[in-house]
Write a structure and sequence with these properties.
It is a single chain. The longest helix has 13 residues. The chain has 5 helices and 7 strands; from the N terminus they run E-E-H-H-H-E-H-E-H-E-E-E. A 7-stranded mixed β-sheet has the order 1-2-3-4-5-6-7. It has 200 residues and is α/β, with parallel strands linked by helices. Helix 3 crosses helix 4. It has one domain.
């Protein structure tokens, strides 16, 4: 059974299916890459899980294993009553099995809008080359490079999420409000393809 998290802070009011950043090989590789222009080196999830969110590790590690090691049977998929749910408020796609399970959760909850932020366009391209993306799934390419704003989303993605330096003159449309009060990322087909936020 997956653990569903009630998010806090900026994501207060949202439920999310999180995984363990500390055991994700992709996350650890990016976090320790040593490049100051890569947002992963400033990962909020790693910093939280190593300090005041240590207690979340066991449940999120169980999620990591459940989502990445086999296809979850339909009768065990979670059912949501919420209008909007976040995939991976903590963590990143682990493998194709993980993506397939999230895809199935979206199909299982056609009345809920799901948003997935990911840098793994390799997995997205491979999976959605042979599968139709659910209409209630919004894919947001999480641009790893700071101050390199992408205007156009990669194939299969709906939006890009970009970080800029705090002193950047680039216009930002993600400026610290709670996500539930904005929903810019979560509303499909609203004409917005580019989200920009300053590094915190």
């Amino acid at each position: 059974m997956l653990t569903i998290s009630n998010m806090t802070g900026k994501l207060e009011g949202f439920k999310a299916i999180n995984t363990n950043t500390l055991s994700n090989p992709y996350c650890q590789k990016m976090y320790s890459c040593g490049s100051d222009d890569i947002i992963c080196t400033k990962c909020y999830s790693v910093e939280m899980l190593e300090t005041f969110r240590k207690g979340c590790i066991p449940a999120w590690e169980r999620n990591s294993k459940a989502l990445s090691e086999g296809i979850i049977p339909p009768h065990l998929l979670p059912t949501f009553l919420e209008a909007f749910v976040r995939f991976s408020g903590h963590g990143e796609l682990i493998n194709m099995t993980h993506l397939k399970n999230l895809h199935n959760i979206a199909l299982h909850n056609a009345h809920t809008k799901f948003a997935l932020w990911t840098k793994r366009k390799d997995l997205i391209n491979r999976f959605y080359a042979n599968n139709d993306k659910p209409e209630n799934l919004i894919l947001i390419f999480s641009n790893p490079k700071i101050d390199a704003v992408l205007n156009n989303p990669p194939k299969h993605f709906d939006r890009t999420f970009n970080n800029v330096s705090p002193n950047s003159e680039t216009v930002q449309n993600c400026t610290g409000q709670k996500c539930k009060d904005c929903l810019l990322c979560y509303i499909p087909n609203n004409g917005v393809t580019q989200i920009v936020e300053a590094v915190k």
